[in-house]
Amino acid sequence: MRWRVTLTSGWTSKVHRHGLMVALAAGAWGLAMAGAGWSGTIWLVLFFLAVAGAADGVSGIFRSTIWNNTIPDHLRGRLAGIELLSYSTGPQLSQIRAGGVATLIGVRASIWTGGLACVAAVLCSVGLRGFIRYDDRTWVPASTSQDSRG
To answer: Is the pTM of this model over 0.70?
Structure first.
C-alpha cells in the first residue's frame, strides 16, 4: 500500500500544514498497528497492515518535504548523518521493545501496545506547536549565511 501512496502523491502538493500531516499520519499508523494487534482474523490484520503502510508512506513524504525545506544548506551533511543514525537504529530499538514486550505479555499485545504508544507520542506532539503549525506558505527560512554556522 505504501507504494500506492508514493505513486499517487500528487495530492500532497495541495497540503501545506506538513507538520500536522506528519502527526496525523503517525497517529493513523499507530491506530492501524493497534487494530492489527487486536484483530483475530488474518484478513483484518492484513487490512490494518496495509493502512499502516499507507500512513507510513504519507508520513515519509511530508517528513522529507519538511527536511528539504527547513534545513540550511551548510547543515545538511551533519543532519543527514544524524538522520541516517536515526533511521538505522530506530527500527532496531523498536524490535528490542517489541520482543521484550512479546516475551512478557504475548505477540498480539506487543503489537497493539506499540501502536497505542505511538498514538500517545503523537498526542504529546501537540505541545510542539512550531511543528504542528508548520505551514510551507508562511515559513521563513533562517539565515543560511556562513556566519551563522556557530
So the answer is: yes
Instruction: Give the length of the chain.
Output: 150
Q: Domain boundaries in the chain?
A: 2-135
**CB contact set of 110 (below 8 Å; sequence gap of 6+):** 37, 98, 99, 101, 102
Pull the grid cell for residue 78. Answer: 551533519
What angle separates helix 76-105 from helix 107-124, to the nearest 10 degrees?
140
The amino acid sitting at 116 is L
Neighbours of 5 (CB within 10 A): 20
Expressed in angstroms, the distance from the first to the final Cα of the chain is 43
- Hey, what's the cell of 17? 500544514
Cell output for 66: 519538511
pLDDT digits (tens, 9 = 90+) for 4-39: 666 666 776 677 788 899 999 999 999 999 999 999
Torsion angle (degrees, nearest 10) of CA 17, 21, 22, 27: 150
